[in-house]
Amino acid sequence: MKRLGLVCCLALLGCPEDPPVTPPPPVVPVRLTVAQLSGLSGKVTLIRDGKSVAAAAGPLFEGDVLETGADGHALLSFKGREVELLASSRFTVGKSLADLSLSLGELLFEELDGGEFNTAAGTARAGAGSKVKLQAGDGGTSFEVGLGTLELLDLEDGGTSTVKAGERFVVGLGVLSLEDPPTPPPPPEVVKPKLKLTPRGTVTLKPKSGPSSKVPAAGRDLEESSGFTVDKSSELRAEIEGAAVEFEGPSKGNLEPGPGDPRMGVTLTAGVGRVFLQEGQSVLLGGGKKPLLVRAKVTSTLLVTPTRDGPRVEVLGGETEVGLEGALPRKLQANELATPRGKGLDTGRRGAPTLTLPAGRNTRVYWGRGGDVALAFPAGEGELEVATDSQFEHKLVSAQGGDALVVQAPVKGALYWRRKGDPESSGARFERDENAGAVSAKSDTVAETGLKATIYFQSAVPTLTFTFPLREGASSWRFRVYSVADLKTPLVDHRVNENRAVVESGALKEGSYVWSEVAMDKNGAEAPGGRMNKMDVVFDNSVTRLVLTSPREGERASTASGLAPLGSRLSLNGKSVALDAAGRFSVPIGGTSVLVFKLVSREGAESQWVRRVAR
Fold first, then answer.
1. Is this prediction's pTM over 0.85?
2. Buried b (16+ CB within 10 A) or exposed e, 170-182
3. b/e string for 199-218 if b means 16 or more Cβ within 10 A?
4. pLDDT bucket at 53, cuts 50 / 70 / 90
5. Residues with Cβ within 8 Å of residue 409, at least 6 apart in sequence
6. CATH number for the domain including 400?
7. Is 580 among the domain residues?
8. Triad 284, 375, 331: Cα angle to 5°
9. Rounded to whole angstroms, how far apart are CA atoms 130 and 193?
10. Do 45 and 141 lie in a common domain?
């Protein structure tokens, strides 16, 4: 009894019950992927488990339905098979891509390895690499073979039919018919490319076969690879749509029109070639072990010269890609250059220009020899153009981008530059500085007249020639020049055998002088008499251009001196030069080897002088 009471007591206190049993979740069968969906464009709808959604790239399962709109497109692929569903079509995914259940529209199926397909018209076997278009509509089912072959099996009559590339087989309404393949359109007419040749002067052309001939002044077309020779002082321009090259004589090489890309082949063996390329155009440069392909990323101009290893390319303006056959191209911009070396390219940059010429002005430049100059352009958009004439008919550079170009300027001649379309251009006239190597001024003659002579000079006291009368019995003369400040010590003391004496430039300076001549007999005895003649040497600044007395071209020097027109402003390598009241100057030149003097006249006209000194 006591045990039973304990049990009842525990029951009344609440003993824990066993937890309820949870049934296992139902097993959901894994759906097998039949194909991967991709290549979606336009309207494509996926119907899965009775729900319609916009199709997205991903796996497709058996029973999925795809519908394409009038602009729709979808690609189904799996293990080497591809099914391309075209516009306005409805397709049901089967157990594999071998089930082509097309109820409406058209599709393309491609088989890489060969295999069988199930269609509404029966079983079809495609050969390896075959591509077939399947169409389904109210008129039945048709098969059109684009590549390879297709065998149709289990047809209504139990036979087998083979459809070849270009043929179309229709199964419709119980009638079988093999349509004749459509007549292929005639091949497009191949237009043989031509280079238009325009000479100036004497240019000779030598084709691969046939004799050499002169290019007529009116020009001619070139349809085959030919050699060319441009005589001295002559030019040749060869052009095709989007590309042109100009050769200055004397030069030699070979030209060949290209059928597509590149549009022109050029091999230069001597001379210089200037290549003009529009955006996207190219030229093939021969002459080395491997040809060099140059393609313009924007409108560009190149300078080409031959070397032992191949063509040297220098980008005068624009941006290009340059590459040897079988190698990755290198990008070259303005002022950069490339030369083939072994299996690659040596690249670098041009040196600094001698001087910079401003935009919007007409400048004169005087120098002993030519060099590179930088041309500044007005701010704006558009191509940069440089020419040797103000009408821009003879262009040196045509390039896109930037606000400056570096070009080689002539010793004597002109350059004009502008942005294409601008009504006004900038210009520069280059002149040879005839005084660059001068060591003396011009001569002046001083005669013995009894009157005071005045000698005016600008850059330096000129060489003076003194003349005096003949005297009876005189076989020679004693000639002396004194400063009026010291009449005891002669500055010049010469014995001459004729009635004239020469004092070289630089021996006398600005000031007042007296001079005399005394006749001497054959024994050297001086005759009595003689006259002291007065002479003033006066500085006269009436110059209209800069006069540089030093340094000379190529001379080693530490200072620069000269004379500038009154009222003008002068600078040396960008630094202002102080002028005295007469316009004279003398300044240290430091360690530079190129001196650029810029003179701005009282009226605002600008000129520049260039002297190169030894270091």
1. no
2. bbeeeebeeeeee
3. bbebbbbeeeeeeeeebeee
4. very high
5. 365, 370, 371, 372, 373, 415, 428, 430
6. 2.60.40.10
7. yes
8. 35
9. 36
10. yes
